[in-house]
Write a structure and sequence with these properties.
Layout lengths: L5 E3 H8 L3 H9 L6 E3 L1 E5 H10 L4
Antiparallel strand pairs: 1-3, 2-3
């Protein structure tokens, strides 16, 4: 099932170069916002906010 505007844990992991396990840890620790729709899904906007929060200016 494809949900427009949402990414799977696998897609997020691939984009960030992290393991799916690590992405689930970040979701569990509430560092990445996610919604459970069958499996965890991350809105693209929430992923962008996470990336911005991790920048070193």
């Amino acid at each position: 099932m494809l949900l427009k505007g949402y990414l799977t844990v696998a897609q997020v992991a691939k984009q960030l170069g992290l393991s799916e396990y690590r992405i689930r840890e970040l979701i569990r620790d509430k560092q990445i916002r996610a919604t459970k729709i069958g499996q965890w899904r991350v809105k693209l906007k929430d992923l962008e906010e996470f990336i911005k929060s991790r920048r070193n200016f």
